[in-house]
Design goal:
By secondary structure, the protein is of the alpha+beta class. It contains four helices and four strands. The protein has helices at about 5-15, 55-75, 75-95, 95-100, and strands at about 25, 30, 35-40, 45-50. Strands 1-2 form a two-stranded antiparallel sheet. Strands 3-4 form a two-stranded antiparallel sheet. The longest helix is centred in the middle third of the chain and has 20 residues, at about 55-75. The protein is flat, with a radius of gyration of 16 Å. The chain starts with 6 loop residues before the first helix and ends with a helix.
Length: about 100
C-alpha cells in the first residue's frame, strides 16, 4: 500500500485507523480477494486501498442481504425509522471528516 498523504486520506485514516480493505457481509468483516488503490481526485494522492470482491463474494453479499430482508421488514416502521435516524445522527457527528472525503 502506498503512503496516504492527502488531507482526505489523513481524515480517512483517523476514521478508519487500520486501513485494511475489507468487506462487511452477513454481519462479519471479510478479507477480499484483492485491493485497489483509490486516489483523491482533488490531489491525485492516495486516499485508501479499496476492497475488490470476487463474483462469489458479491453473490454471498447478495444472499446475506436477501436472508436479512425479511427480519428487517418485520422490525416495524418505527424501529426502522429510529435506526435510520441514528445513522443520520452519526453521519452529522462526523460530517466534517466525511466532507474531506468528497
Amino acid at each position: 500500500m502506498r503512503s496516504t498523504t492527502s488531507a482526505a486520506g489523513q481524515a480517512l485514516q483517523a476514521f478508519w485507523p487500520d486501513q485494511q480493505p475489507r468487506t462487511f457481509v452477513g454481519g462479519q468483516w471479510c478479507d477480499p480477494v484483492a485491493s485497489a488503490p483509490t486516489d483523491d481526485p482533488s490531489t491525485g494522492l492516495l486516499l485508501a486501498d479499496a476492497p475488490v470482491s470476487s463474483p462469489a463474494e458479491v453473490a454471498a453479499a447478495v444472499e446475506a442481504a436477501a436472508q436479512a430482508q425479511p427480519a428487517w421488514a418485520a422490525v416495524g416502521l418505527e424501529a426502522r425509522a429510529a435506526a435510520l435516524q441514528e445513522f443520520a445522527h452519526r453521519l452529522r457527528e462526523r460530517g466534517e471528516e466525511l466532507a474531506l472525503l468528497e
